[in-house]
Amino acid sequence: MDIVKAVQYYTNRIITDTSSMKVLLLDRETTPIISLVSTQTHLLSKEVYLVDRIENRQRDAMRHLKCVCFVRPTDASLQALRDELRSPKYGDYYVYFSNMLKKSMVEMLAENDENEVVREVQEFFADFYAVTPCLFHMGLEPSTHPLFAEGHSWNPGALGRTVQGLSAVLLALKRRPNIRYERNSAMAQRLGRELDYLMDHESSLFGSTGGNLTQLVILDRKNDPVTPLLTHWTYHAMLHELIGITNGRIDLSHVPDIRPESKEVMLAQDQDSFFKQSQFLNFGDLGVSVKEFVDSYQSQSQSHHKIESISDMKRFVEAYPEFRKLSGNVSKHVTLIGELSRLVSQRHLLAVSELEQSLACNEQHGTDLRALRALIANPKIQPENKVRCVVLYALRYEQTQGNAVNELKQLLSSNGVDADMVSIIDVMLRYGGARERQSDIFQNENIFSRGKNIFKGLQGTENVYTQHTPALAIMLEDLVRGRQGLHWQERLPNLDPNARPPMLGNENGMFNQDIVVFVVGGVTMEEEMAVAKLNAKFVTQNVRVVLGGTSIHNSRTFMSELSTTFFP
User: Fold this and answer.
1) Please, which residues have CB within 8 angstroms of residue 140's CB and are 6 or more apart in sequence?
2) Do residues 53 and 25 make contact, with C-beta atoms less than 8 angstroms apart?
3) Taking Cα atoms as reference points, which of 471, 501, 549 lies closest to residue 169?
4) pLDDT surpassing 50 at residue 459
5) What CA dihedral angle connects 75, 80, 86 and 89, to 10 degrees?
6) pLDDT number for residue 448
C-alpha cells in the first residue's frame, strides 16, 4: 500500500513501453502528478527527449520522434488531443489516460485520427496526487474545483473529480473495499454511494469483494475543525503552514537575500534522503539533525568555523560554495530551516502555539480568556494568528455559559483586525460547531468527558507545543486495537446496511488489514504523521493505512476555503 510506488509503476510503464527517443506530452493536471514521483533526470534516462504541455501549440514538428501522451479524460484535454491529431507534429502517438474512458471518447479519437498516427490507447489509473507513500490528495483548489455548493453539500464538479480520483487510488492499489462513512455527514455518505455505484458498474475492473480485508473509511473535516487550525512543529507540517507546499514545490522567492538557484525547491522522499529521515522531526531535533550533516562536511574540509546556531550554518554554507555543490539537499534544508526559524521568531509563534495548544487540549476558561485578551492586544502578533486563537476559543467554549466570543470579536476589531477576517469566527462555528460535529473532540460536552479532560490536564505533558492528538489518530488506534467496537460501528456504519460489521482486531492484536482513510474537506500534515507512526507501530501485524483528502490544508487554506461558503 505505497501510493508513490503505485504512480511510479504507471509512470515507468508510460515511458518504457515505447522504445527509442520520444516526447512526453502532459496536461495541466497530469504534469504535477508526474513531477511528484519522477524527475527530469529519470525521464531522460528512459529516452524522453522533451516534456511539454499538450495545450502548447507552439511546439516544433519532429516527425522522426514518437509521442507519448498522458492526460486526464477531461473535455479540455480531449479537445487539445483532437487538435494535436488533426495536425500531428510527431510520427507515432501512444495515448494514455489517467482514468476510465467512455466509449464515446474512444470513438472521438478514432474520428480525429485521420492521419492514422495513434498506435495505442490505454487507461493507467494515476489520477491523484501522491505526496508520500501514505499520503495523497485530489488537488481540489477553490479556484478550480470549489468543494461546497451550499452549506454541507457537494459541488457537482468536485464530487465527480473526487469519485474519479478515489476510484483511481483503489484501482492503482488493486483493492475493492468495504465502505464506511461518518454517520452525521451527508457528503461522506454521498461520496460512498457514488463510489459504490461506480465499482458495481465497473465490476470487471474492480473485481469482487470476496475475502476482502480492505476498509475505506470516509470522514468529514467538520468533525475535527481543530487540527487544521493549529501551528504544528514537525518539519513537513511547518513548511506547509509557514511557507506553503504546492505539489512538492516550495516558493522561496520572497525570502530575504535568497540565492537565485534556491528561489524554488522540491521536496520528495525518493530524491532527498535528509527529508525522508527528518520529515517528522520536531523543530528542536531538526536543528540538531542538520547540524550533524554540516559538522560532518566541516570536519572533512578541515574548516574551523564555530557552528552553534542556524545562522552559523547559513553563513558556513555561503562561505563554502563547494559544500552546496556536494551536498545540495543539505544546503537546501539549511535554507529552509533558516527561513522557518526567522518566521517563528518574527511571528512570535511560540507564544501563539502555547495558547493554541491550551485551547485545544485543556478546559480552563478563565486562564484561556485572560491569555487571549493579552494576545489580541499585543501588536506584535499577526491578525490571522489572533483570529485563529479566537476561533479555537469559540469552538471549545461554544456551549459554555458566559463565554466571551462577542467580546473577543469586538476586541479584535478595536485592535485593527479586518472585518472579513473577524467574520471567520462565525464561519467556523457554522461549519464545525457543536451542532455539526459528531464527536466530543474537546471532551467537555458532559460531566464524564469533562472529568477525563481534567485528569488528562493533571498528568502534564512532555512538550506544551505538541499536546494535541488529531481525532483521526485516536480513531485509527481504536479501530486497529478493536477498542470501543460498538461505538465505532455506530459512528462509522457500513454503506451496505446488510454487510456484517467488520471486526478489525482485538486487544490481543491485529490480523492483515488495509485501511484507506479519506477526509472530505482536506487532510493535514499532522494527520499524515499520525498515520506514518501507526504504520510503523503495527508493521509486524501487517496493518497498512494510507491517508487521502480532497486537498492538503494549512490553517490559511482551510479558513479560505470555508469563508466562500459558510459566510454568516
Assistant:
1) 146, 147, 158, 161, 162, 550, 551
2) yes
3) 549
4) no
5) -160
6) 37
CA dihedral 266, 272, 275, 276 (to 10 degrees): 130
In the sheet that holds 118-123, the strands lie side by side as 48-53, 22-26, 62-71, 90-97, 118-123
> For position 540, what pLDDT does the model report?
81
Amino acid at 7: V
Distance between CA atoms of residues 483 and 479, nearest Å: 6
pLDDT in tens, 255-298: 887 878 778 888 887 778 788 888 898 888 887 777 776 666 55
Q: Which three cell numbers stand for residue 519?
A: 477526509
Distance CA 78, CA 82 (A): 6
Average pLDDT score over residue span 25-39: 93
Q: Enter the C-alpha cell of residue 493.
A: 456504519
- Which three three-digit cell numbers place residue 292? 550533524
Q: How many CB atoms lie within 10 A of CB 563?
A: 17
Average pLDDT, the chain: 85
Strand, coil or helix: 95: strand
Match 459554555 to its residue by C-alpha cell: 400
Cell matching residue 106: 474512444
Closest CA to 97 of 39, 171, 159, 47: 171
**Span 210-230, average pLDDT:** 87
- Measured distance CA(438)–CA(561) in Å, rounded: 21
Cell numbers of 548, please? 487521502
pLDDT bucket at 465, cuts 50 / 70 / 90: confident
Q: Which amino acid is at 547?
A: L
242: DSSP letter = I
Q: Residue 220 is placed in which grid cell? A: 468529514
Alpha-carbon separation of residue 567 from 41, 562, 563 (angstroms): 47, 8, 6
* Cell numbers found for residue 457: 490536564
pLDDT in tens, 69-112: 999 999 999 999 999 999 999 999 999 999 998 888 888 888 88
Count Cβ atoms below 10 Å from residue 351 Cβ, excluding itself.
16
Compute how many other C-beta atoms are within 10 angstroms of the C-beta atom of residue 44: 12
Q: How far are the Cα atoms of 63, 65, 73, 115, 173 from residue 92, in angstroms, in the given order?
A: 8, 7, 20, 10, 31
Q: What is the mean pLDDT of residues 116-132?
A: 93
Strands 118-123 vs 90-97: parallel, antiparallel or unpaired: parallel
**Interatomic CA distance for residues 251 and 315, integer angstroms:** 21
DSSP string for residues in 329-351: HHHHHHHHHHHHHHHHHHTTHHH
Asked if 393 and 359 count as a contact pair (C-beta separation under 8 A), the reply is yes
**In which order are the strands placed within the sheet that holds 543-549?**
129-132, 135-137, 543-549, 513-520, 214-220, 178-181
Instruction: Band the pLDDT of 460: cuts 50, 70, 90.
Output: very low
Cell numbers of 410, please?
A: 469586538
Distance, CA of 513 to CA of 505 (rounded, Å): 9
* Per-residue pLDDT at 404 exceeds 70: yes
- C-alpha grid cell for residue 22? 520520444
Q: What span, in angstroms and rounded, lies between the C-alpha atoms of 355 and 348?
A: 12
Helix, coil or strand: residue 191: helix
Q: For residue 324, what pLDDT is reported?
A: 54
